[in-house]
Amino acid sequence: MSKSQRLVQLIMRINSLKSFTVQQLAGEFGLSARTITRDLQELSELGVPVYSVQGRGGGYRLLQERMLPPIAFTEGEAVAMFVACQSLNNLSALPFDEGAESALHKFYHYLPADVRERIDRLKQKVAILSPNRTMNPECLRTLLQAIMIRCVVTIGYSSSQGVKERDIQPIGLYASGGYWYCPAYCFLREEVRLFRADRIRSAVLNEAMEWREEADRWDLRNRPENVDTNPIPFTVSLTRSGVRQLESDEWFGPFLVVQEDGGGKATIRISTENMRFYADHIWRLGADARIVEPAEAVEYMQRKLESLKSVYDTNE
Amino acid sequence: MSKSQRLVQLIMRINSLKSFTVQQLAGEFGLSARTITRDLQELSELGVPVYSVQGRGGGYRLLQERMLPPIAFTEGEAVAMFVACQSLNNLSALPFDEGAESALHKFYHYLPADVRERIDRLKQKVAILSPNRTMNPECLRTLLQAIMIRCVVTIGYSSSQGVKERDIQPIGLYASGGYWYCPAYCFLREEVRLFRADRIRSAVLNEAMEWREEADRWDLRNRPENVDTNPIPFTVSLTRSGVRQLESDEWFGPFLVVQEDGGGKATIRISTENMRFYADHIWRLGADARIVEPAEAVEYMQRKLESLKSVYDTNE
DNA sequence: TTAAATAAGACAGATCCTGTCTTGTTTGCA
DNA sequence: TGCAAACAAGACAGGATCTGTCTTATTTAA
């Protein structure tokens, strides 16, 4: 094995040890202690954060963070990662710390001048935006950490009754429609619930509480709120403009049936407790959509209409 | 200079040349041709996609893509990039090609087993979602490409009058509220307009048309649609629940004034042509919000109410 | 005080790297 | 067709670097 290959191997080996002595490595690699000493010195000069403790019980330690061996990327790979991470930066709050930024710096540093120029042009022009500027990225980071290491979190959650403390076991984290959501097992309600992350005002890991196994089965393809029990049909009829507005809708889009006159219909199956949610969703379309069934939803819309009408009537 | 350093230098040098001969490099590096030959052979074995053309006028060429010299990352950096890109993967359509994916593979490959396990746990649990599954990632990619290389694009755009072809000069690309938007100079209307990317059914680079310089001044902080000319005040009064719904709203959130009783008010300044947009935005809140001014918006809401009312009345 | 650890210099021998020379092959051009 | 320009690859000597051994010094915990 050549020396440079050996150095890469050495990085991998010392990554997997929290502490080691020169003799030990010399044995493992079949080399003399002097050579290993020299290698470690060289790695240190190359930026591997290794330090030594002299004296009995001493040895070498890795400072802070483990390192990966040097990896060669193609230009396309670097640009793709760069643009992806860069565009995320405009998401007001992100659960990642400075790690991503320093990695971007490394990529940027090695890119040839012409590619750098092209990337600079994209920097302020491609983004994934989140309108929500009120939330604390520290909370997101804590939630992410909790998912990774399987830990219960004590949060301060702002509901309509004010901010209350509760223990949750976060089992996922996703951004959708400009908001972060955190599905979690709630120890207060003793069930899996969906929390709006911007309503989580504080989050602290609570290592004292025990992790419940059932949460591990959850993933994005199998969201508990999507599993409707006892589903009923929910049908809307749409004008031409209504069709256009719903055609790329998350829920109704896939079930849209367009008629010859340009209008359309869509029927989805929902559980009764979510009726209001879908009715409110349709409400946004105004006169371009009419709920056909269930009757409760039609009534709900009519009540909503009356109450809004009274809001404007009393004030004229 | 040590051999390994020299190889890194060599990668950089050959990246900046499309074609070169051994003699040439031997001169530049002050080494013999034989040594350079051997170095190139070694780089080739390490995966640098270099190939040779024999005969007069021949030489070495770089196949496909330029490569970056090997870069060492810390574990934290790798995890941050990995999770960031991974979570983006769930965004139904992304403007990046396989580049990001193969880069992720490299990171994953070098990560120690325990970190891999933690990442696996996150994979299906953290995401940035987009509800819109109808759009073509190929279009996004073309638009991104066009921004990078400054090129006009011919698109098929679906408006209320059907799909029409038009030439645009894309000047940005962003995702917000689950949709991709593309601000672009429109050659048809001769002004900068905002296009919904999911309504762009096809996109082809049109290298024949000339690029207009004024588009380069645009960036995300200086969006043309935010520059309202001749602004008028737009005021809503809110119930307690309305306050809660608007507090992290993109437009009204920052201007919310909460009263002692829990209700609130918000006044923003808009241009008259956007009145309907903001009124429709407030419409969503139902009876939890009442538009106070301008009078045109109040009338608009009342007309919308009447038309929705008639939709349900005629059918009972 | 001692044992176990790093730190670092010196030096010979081993190994690898480099340059030179050589023979071959491929390819475009005159 | 033959020549010149390019790569391909072997051989070998000399040089450079790496490695192992030996050594001395220092640090630290037991």
Automatic annotation (TrEMBL), chains A, B:
Q: Cite the GO molecular-function annotations of the record.
A: DNA-binding transcription factor activity
**Residue span(s) of domain HTH deoR-type:** 3-61
State if Transcription is listed as a keyword.
yes
Entry superkingdom:
Bacteria
Keyword annotations: Transcription, Transcription regulation
- Transcription is among the record's keywords: yes
State the SMART domains in the record: HTH_DEOR (SM00420)
Q: Which PANTHER family match?
A: PTHR34580, SLL5097 PROTEIN
What is the protein's given name?
A: YafY family transcriptional regulator
Source species, please? Paenibacillus oceani
| Source species taxonomy | Bacteria, Bacillati, Bacillota, Bacilli, Bacillales
